[in-house]
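User: Predict the structure for this protein chain, please.
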Amino acid sequence: MNYDSLSSNKFSTLSQIIASMSSHLDPTDLGILNLLQENGRLTNKELAHHLNRTISPIFDRRKRLEEMGYIKKYVAVLDREKITNSIVAFPQIALNNHAEDSLASFQQAVIAYPEVLECYHITGKYDFMLKIIIPDMNAYNTFLRQRIAPLTNVGSVHSSLVISQAKAETGLPLPT
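Assistant: Here is the predicted structure, written as structure tokens:
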């Protein structure tokens, strides 16, 4: 993918970017993906009904979308607040060395921690941003001191803690 084209005025919205990336998916494929993002438990019969198609082609398309990696997995989205009183933190980490092996080593180490839900290699002052779920501030302090700080090449860490969450979506805004 040519990332320079993403920064041009050619793409003014996220949906236009996604539409350009998914231009080889036809409306039926996009319909299947949109419906499954809303409810991954839909049967092929239900998908066919919503899309005014027969079951057999929907089965074949769904299988193809799975095999090609458009559908990575099916999951249940849990309500964190009903399960635990944990906190969510977004530490941003600056590394001292930006060689490929240093970046890969750091990334491989942090993605192995179960507290790390997401890991992003980012631009700007920091090199990585993590999404961490942790029971409380003491556990977060321990996590930073015992898991992040000892990693070779960690220069600095800036943390942001979530006060409240206004929106959390798991689906991509696909064209319809």
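Residues 1-10 have pLDDT under 50 and may be disordered.
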